[in-house]
Amino acid sequence: MSVSVSSYGEAEVVHLPEKLTMANANEIKTSINAMIEEGRHRLVVDMAGVNFTDSSGLAVLVALYKGVGAKNGRAVLLSPQPSVQSLLELTRLQELFEIYQDPRAAIDRVLAA
User: Could you tell me the domains of the chain?
Assistant: First the structure.
């Protein structure tokens, strides 16, 4: 399954699938890169439904961070599950991404970029 996207003005909420693994990482990365190239670089990455990720999934997040940064945009993470949050902390990705629990606050943050 690929990503689904909800638009809120210039902000895009990217809803990720339940698993973010080597099996779907390429497809997800391609979808997100296409969004960034289209000029959609104010992204809220909704991780509420992600209950598992591996290193390939983390690589997607790093690529997203770099891609958005290259366009002077912003990406934040929304509502990661506790197991995914722990992995983000273990790998220090929480130092790259601001993490929000409130969707409105996340959207406001990327719009302020």
Answer: 4-111 (3.30.750.24)
